[in-house]
Amino acid sequence: MNTSTQKKRLPLSIVSTIGVFVCLFAAYPAQAAFPTIEDIKSGNVTLDDIISDIPTEIEIKTQMAHTNLFIETEPKNYQANQNITVSLKSYLADIDRAYISWYVDEKNVTSGIGKTKINIKTKDAGTRTTIRVVVDPIEKDIDSIEKTIILYPTDFDVLWEADSYTPPFYKGKALYTAHSKIKLVAMPNFPNNLADNLFYEWEKNINRLRSESGYGRSVVNLDKIAENYGNMRIDVAVSTLDKSIASYRIFNIPSAQQAIIFYEDDPIEGVMYNRAVGKTFDTAKKEFTIVAEPYYFSQTDKKNGSLDFSWQVNNADKPGYEQKIAFTQEKSGIGNAYVKLAMRNLGNIYQSAREYLTINFNNSDAN
């Protein structure tokens, strides 16, 4: 072999010295400034100084046990003034045999071997509870471990608005229907410095709404909900990014079917929304108009003219009429008319309704 091209090897003593420094660097505390070669040469830092700063085996194991010690609450997302369970879990230390002491707001509430759980009641919204737990492991090579968690129950409201139609002056709430749209808005009562930095987790009927959840996602728009008729369950959790403060809500949104309600349209007073016509309408008027209000149909589709009105009077089609139909009694006397209205949403095949009305005429002065 040509010695001129052969790679030179470092002396074994130099390799050993480098290995020592590599090991020392790996074990040296991260918060300390690692000494330079100049520091060592000048005598400002000795090898004993470096070695004295290296954690002992007990310190390393204790730190690992601390890192793998967790405090959890059940339920995970608690509310104010709620009874909860606080549990201690570890994947390294044998805490079932350890002596555990629990402190609530620095008051010792229980101590003993294997005391891995306590039951407490959270305080009012916005009031903190500090829980500190001290663990004395059975392992001799692990020092005491301490963990702290702060419970900070908060409160928030959730408003919802369905894209369904109700007539003017209707005192009730517009309900959602199958395959309709609904808007949800979470309004958290968190400290002012946290209100704009919150994480929202939404669920509908116990199914996670992944695309609607996330940072700052306080508003959710659900489009064409596919469930059949029935209440819709909504779960929402609001928390800070580090989950140190969290709140949780479960509520049900009632549903309804589309319906047609008839009202009289008076030429002087307007539509008589204070009194529905019902199934039977008795009148002595020569002329009158009936208005059909499409309750809980899509409000957007109604504005867009997507609702189709199919009227029949005495089994005869009456084309050309939409939401209103006019009647004229041409002859005097007593009579009746049977009215049928079938309504459907051309923009949503799942929305339809039909209703019947019997009109009883009693006018001896017609003509």
TrEMBL record:
Keywords attached to this entry: Signal
Signal peptide: 1-32
Listed name of the protein: Ig-like domain-containing protein
